[in-house]
Design goal:
- By secondary structure, the protein is α+β, with helices and mostly antiparallel strands.
- It has a single domain, classed as N-terminal domain of TfIIb.
- Helix content is 21%, strand content 20%.
- The chain contains three helices and four strands, in the order H-E-E-E-E-H-H.
- It has a two-stranded antiparallel sheet. Strands 3-4 form a two-stranded antiparallel ribbon.
- Strand 3 and strand 4 (47-49) form a beta hairpin.
């Protein structure tokens, strides 16, 4: 058993997986990583914004250290405290 606790809430951010979503404009099936917040449709060119599944990083005071400063800033932007 490891000595370091690994937060299960950040697993899709630290080790992203691929999800399939449909473009709301043309219906094309697209692949997006679980840590991405937008994707451009290869079929129609639309940019699809989606809310990342931010889980615990929105409220956990250890989130920035847990997932890394760069990824934290990318996902949270200016919403650090809210």
């Amino acid at each position: 058993m490891p000595d370091v606790f690994e937060c299960p809430g950040a697993s899709n951010i630290k080790a992203p997986t691929i999800e399939e979503i449909k473009c709301p404009k043309c219906g094309e099936e697209l692949e997006i990583f679980t840590d991405e917040t937008e994707i451009k449709c290869d079929n129609c060119g639309a940019t699809i914004d989606r809310k990342a599944n931010l889980q615990c990083i929105q409220w956990c005071e250890a989130a920035e250290k847990c997932i890394g400063e760069e990824k934290y800033r990318e996902l949270m932007g200016d919403k650090k405290n809210g």
